[in-house]
């Protein structure tokens, strides 16, 4: 059945682009532009990162960390989104970044992009669900059920919610898209409701508070950040928006399931960042205005959100909001499983991972990469389990991982963007997609992305996340060993040139196997 406004011609155009890149239409195209937007908007989820990472601002540079820091950090994310949108319009495939890295560079840069994006996605899935766990414990787990935060409780909780997210993904993109569409509306509605509740509970509207720099590093800020200068604390606080506004690459990862992908994906990617930035700003500013006073809020450290809600908000209203936030956080993880699995599927399709044959298999019944979905989900839980058993000094491994996640993800965004800067107009990239900024604008955003990546790396490896530097360097060393030791000889990369034509029979067979027909069905 064709979607409204999606003609036979549109469908054949989408499939033609995919065939021209040497791939079969194995996944099912059912996502509208809104659904493609909603999957990124759900992963960004201002109700997840925005709330769970609040202390990075309130126990850092105070009100200014939100009032000034949030728009600044969101702009950093937007720079990457705009540059990636330009590339995604020209190359709308699942696991987008990996292909862009290969096409605009070579098989090594594609492989490197895929590795870092995958590491980032698996760790971010773990981090999002850990955030959901702590939110659950603070809202209902401890107050109502008397649960204690132990590694066992955490891993059981994670296994249950991640398993449920994987199951929904397993059942087909139709169900996942319905839920992420709902999640898009839920995030808008809950963010507005939370903002109204905060503003209604605010003692006064002290707008100056949002522009006032403070320094709550060290003891007075519940040791969220070690003692530091005001400028550094402000820069460290940028990790709140930068960590929250990430995951918009999901729009690219679901390209092969999106109608009119070359048009829809870039728009969805940029709009998911803009809407998240705007609604997140209103919500977080309202929260800061509600705080009884900034000093007491800073002292609460990581518990600032629950403390403020307990102090100022009616218990029934508070619990209703908590339920909505919890559901939005679960849906955020659901969308992340979609993103991780499509990346694993796309990379395996070209033999990029151990067990690639199984990981790239698409279920004829559900039209989803089942093995990739469960593998990504299990890896995320195992990763959290392992990082829960290890503590480095006084720093919880979780915060180090969040810093690494941001570095890994943005590094995987930067590689294809930087390659695009040099490939523009050459034989590697001489045909632009329908969403085209023009050379000057793209190159400006590409240069800004590279500068932003340096900034993120520098901020990301400061104490208390100084271990992130060693972990990142360690991964680079391991990556070099794996590439030169094994993959350089074995890994072929995506099909290019004559290779695409040779695949025609394989493509037709793969499409028959999952029941894909040439016309709309």
Description:
- By secondary structure, the protein is an all-alpha fold.
- Helix content is 70%, strand content 0%.
- The protein is built from 24 helices and no strands.
- It has helices at 8-20, 33-44, 49-52, 55-58, 63-67, 69-90, 96-104, 107-145, 151-170, 173-201, 230-237, 239-244, 250-253, 261-290, 294-299, 304-312, 315-349, 356-359, 370-389, 397-423, 439-460, 467-490, 498-502, 504-513.
- α8 (107-145) runs antiparallel to α17.
- The chain is globular, with a radius of gyration of 22 Å.
Kindly provide the radius of gyration, computed on alpha-carbon positions and rounded to a whole number of angstroms. Answer: 22 Å
General shape: globular
Write down the secondary-structure element order: HHHHHHHHHHHHHHHHHHHHHHHH
Number of helical stretches of at least 4 residues? 24
User: How helix-rich are the residues, as a percent range?
Assistant: over 70%
Instruction: Briefly note the structural class of the backbone.
Output: mainly alpha
Cα separation of the termini: 4 Å
Number of strands: 0
Largest sheet: none
- How much of the sequence lies in strands comes to under 5%
Q: Which consecutive residue ranges, at least 5 long each, have pLDDT under 50?
A: none
Mean pLDDT: 93
Describe how the helices and strands are arranged.
Layout: H1 8-20, H2 33-44, H3 49-52, H4 55-58, H5 63-67, H6 69-90, H7 96-104, H8 107-145, H9 151-170, H10 173-201, H11 230-237, H12 239-244, H13 250-253, H14 261-290, H15 294-299, H16 304-312, H17 315-349, H18 356-359, H19 370-389, H20 397-423, H21 439-460, H22 467-490, H23 498-502, H24 504-513
